[in-house]
Amino acid sequence: MDPHMAEDEELQKLKEWWKKNGTSIIVGVVVGLVAILGFNGWNMYTANRGESASMLFTQLREAAQSGDAEQASQLAQELKQDFASTPYASGGALVTAATLYSTGEIERARDLLQWALDNAPEPNLEHTARLRLAYLELGEGNHQKALDLATVTDTGTYASQYAEIRADAHAAAGAAAEARTAYEEAIAAAGPGSGYVELLRAKLNDVAAAN
Predict the structure, then answer these.
(1) Is the pTM of this model over 0.90?
(2) Helices (H), 42-142
(3) Which one of 141, 168, 192 terminates a domain?
């Protein structure tokens, strides 16, 4: 098989995966993080302002789940303007970016992800924004940008995901040896009990078979 054809197919699969799963996955991550932060008493604002931010985020989430990207964007802008230091603003930017990307609004999605990355008040939200932005750049064929985003010292609990993106970027750029090494790192970081390992092994095998 022509390796360039295989790379194009992988990029197309990535775009299709994002459009199908991106919003729901990010919504789940963000809702979970907001719930945890709220449970732990994190709130830089008064109780009333926190409640207002929560209500806006709930409305945004509902708009995103219904596919209303413009309504979600408007609510995300309100959160950014009035509650920028809360997880609701960064979370809203993440959710809206996924919805915009699914409708082909690439630049707007990229801008929101960058904002979330720059303004995330909590490490998990920052990692989520960085990973989503790296996936976006990879899906758009910007292999070096994806690689740069995924090359970080502090990976938190996301070492496997970062390694996978580096591997995908290397594979898409035709750097098979680097891709194999990164996939092996992703597999090692995922751990033997992870169901995700099989997908990583499949990607590793694909790289080996194409070269």
Answers:
(1) no
(2) 47-65, 69-82, 87-102, 106-119, 123-139
(3) 141
